[in-house]
Inverse folding.
């Protein structure tokens, strides 16, 4: 039967036996991973619920049932979306601004080595500053509104995207650049047809990594000074020793981060489909 399947595959009649076996093995592995993840999650939540009040004081760890009730209450009151939308809005703005500036400067510095060498010590010095230390300065500059959170988020995203774009451009094979030049291409053609496509995987990896950092930057800004947002909820609950609200905020951030990561993984697969095809 395997021989017949291989003959049919050779004339374009379907998958060979080896490919079909490989697909079946991959499907079984994916199911195993999914079941394993569910089991780990169920065991963790069950142990947390059991340990709360029995092994560890509820004041320190709350419980999954209490956290679920608090999230449900926020959802019914409408406060959940009110705070979450503010955090997501600031995160999106910070991500867009930081990634755009980082991408443009990464292209510029990667393409012109002399410019990169001139600014190298300054970029290194700025990169070495912990971004959380900039938050008070941004609050002084932009106030306690959403602008300061956007600035913190953008400052973190900028360096991730900038460094990845720079590395991607520097990694481009010079043969492709010379070939484009020989065929009469100008600098814009080199950027459009060689630099950006070749560096795309680096840039997309940088964008994927920077989204969670954008969320972290926004929450740090909300910790420092705000009256809305998930960071504000967590900071306020911490001051009141309300552990349930703290865990509810953390769970919310974790869920949002996981959803964003899944969306980015699908976006990466779609944007780099040409690479998979090769």
């Amino acid at each position: 039967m395997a021989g017949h399947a291989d003959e049919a595959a050779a004339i374009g009649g379907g998958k060979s036996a080896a490919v079909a076996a490989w697909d079946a093995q991959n499907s079984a592995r994916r199911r195993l991973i999914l079941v394993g993840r569910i089991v780990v999650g169920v065991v963790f939540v069950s142990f947390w619920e059991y340990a709360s009040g029995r092994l560890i004081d509820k004041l320190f760890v709350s419980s999954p049932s209490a956290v679920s009730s608090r999230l449900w209450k926020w959802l019914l009151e409408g406060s959940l979306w009110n705070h979450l939308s503010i955090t997501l809005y600031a995160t999106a703005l910070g991500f867009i601004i930081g990634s755009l500036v980082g991408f443009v400067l990464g292209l510029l510095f990667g393409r012109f080595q002399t410019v990169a060498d001139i600014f190298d010590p300054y970029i290194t010095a700025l990169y070495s500053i912990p971004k959380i230390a900039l938050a008070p300065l941004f609050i002084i500059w932009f106030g306690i509104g959403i602008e300061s959170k956007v600035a913190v988020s953008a400052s973190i995203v900028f360096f991730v995207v900038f460094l990845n774009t720079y590395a991607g451009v520097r990694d481009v094979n010079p043969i492709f650049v010379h070939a484009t030049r020989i065929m009469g291409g100008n600098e814009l053609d080199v950027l459009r047809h060689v630099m950006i496509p070749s560096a795309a995987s680096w840039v997309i990896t940088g964008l994927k990594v920077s989204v969670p950092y954008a969320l972290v930057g926004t929450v740090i800004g909300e910790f420092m000074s705000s009256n809305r947002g998930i960071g504000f909820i967590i900071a306020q609950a911490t001051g009141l020793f309300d552990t349930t609200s703290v865990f509810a905020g953390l769970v919310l951030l974790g869920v949002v981060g996981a959803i964003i990561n899944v969306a980015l993984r699908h976006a990466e697969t779609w944007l780099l489909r040409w690479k998979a095809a090769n």
